[in-house]
Design a protein that fits this description.
The chain is α/β, with parallel strands linked by helices. Helix content is about 45%, strand content about 15%.
Length: about 350
């Protein structure tokens, strides 16, 4: 590929955040797993179900059914194509959802269910405007109950993922970027082909010459896909760093002077000590010293000391991304978690730039 060709392809691919897509990803995860959600969503799933029950918030039955029959995927009328990173908030995206024409809802449902719309989804098919209005009222309540306690961690992971992948796109081009993604993307020649599971099987979208990539912390095991009338296709992928959802959300600072005693039976804490093991676990997502300190409730000087020693030991590596210095697990750190962490599983970072 020549430099000019790479530039043309790079202009056709962009990365965008979407709070609405992330919200639907989390709903799909809860809907698809009646019991415990898989790691690293297990602790979040327990806490979210308790919080939703206390707040008397129930996911609409037709939405649960769509998530289950689609394997976590959803019809595209529920997924407005994100405009660009950081420009639209959840309220703006809900406004776009509210404006979806009823005829489009019925048309897509008929395509999803060629043998007939199932009874669970008929209320949506019969009165799309009313059911979409109910959904738009439900979504903020769901977010407050299930996601707000984790909002800082979700945003940090998404922003870091976008920053790092945008760097790959700018320096190495779309081919390298698309090769790092986990999600519903294949290629036909030089053209990316997004796809998503539907009740009818694997459905390939039209060739996506204009592609929007949407990172989702809740993107594991499902691909969300949407197309706009102007020919732009948006497809989700699994953001690196979902491990931040393992354990309880942390806010504020822990009491200073607390003994750094490991939990009984926790091999990683026995080896490293409680706070240093927490730093290693948190680095499943690339992050900064200040973000680590906020997330873990530790003094920045303490986090900095741990990072210095972990870098010296070859467990963590340091990289610069713009004006920020990010820390992430090196290969030895990934191996350490895989072999010694009692409850977590971690994959090597997939956005290597060298």
């Amino acid at each position: 590929m020549t430099t000019s060709e790479r530039g043309a392809h790079a202009r056709a691919v962009r990365i965008a955040d979407s709070r609405l897509w992330e919200t639907f990803g989390s709903i799909g995860l809860l809907s698809s797993h009646r019991g415990l959600a898989p790691w690293p969503y297990t602790d979040w799933g327990r806490a979210a179900r308790r919080s939703l029950m206390r707040a008397d918030v129930t996911v609409p039955g037709w939405l649960v059914h769509l998530c289950r029959v689609g394997g976590g995927s959803l019809p595209s009328f529920l997924l407005p194509v994100p405009s660009s990173a950081g420009q639209a908030g959840l309220a703006d995206e809900i406004a776009l959802l509210r404006a979806v024409p009823p005829a489009r809802v019925r048309e897509e449902l008929d395509r999803w269910f060629p043998q007939g719309v199932p009874v669970e989804v008929r209320p949506l098919h019969a009165d799309p405007a009313a059911r979409i209005a109910d959904l738009c009222a439900f979504l903020p309540r769901y977010v407050r109950a299930a996601l707000v306690p984790y909002e800082a961690s979700l945003r940090a992971v998404t922003e870091d993922d976008i920053l790092l992948r945008a760097r790959v796109l700018a320096t190495q081009g779309p081919d390298r970027l698309l090769g790092t993604l986990r999600g519903g993307l294949s290629r036909r020649g030089d053209v990316p082909r997004p796809y998503a599971g539907t009740p009818g099987g694997l459905a390939a979208a039209a060739d996506a010459s204009r592609l929007v990539l949407v990172p989702l912390v809740f993107g594991r095991g499902a691909t969300l896909l949407s197309s706009a009338p102007n020919g732009v296709t948006a497809v989700s992928y699994q953001a690196e760093g979902a491990a931040v959802l393992a354990g309880e959300p942390r806010s504020g600072r822990r009491a200073e002077g607390r003994a750094d005693e490991p939990a009984r039976g926790d091999r990683l804490e026995i080896l490293l000590g409680r706070s240093r093991a927490a730093v290693v676990r948190a680095l499943a997502a690339p992050t900064t010293t200040s973000d680590l300190a906020t997330t873990l409730g530790l003094a920045p000087s303490t986090v900095s000391e741990h990072l210095t020693l972990l870098v010296a030991a070859g467990v963590v590596r340091r990289r610069r991304a713009g004006v920020r210095v990010l820390y992430e697990l090196d290969g030895s750190g990934v191996a350490l978690l895989r072999h010694l962490d009692n409850r977590n599983r971690v994959d090597a970072p997939s956005y290597e730039t060298t």
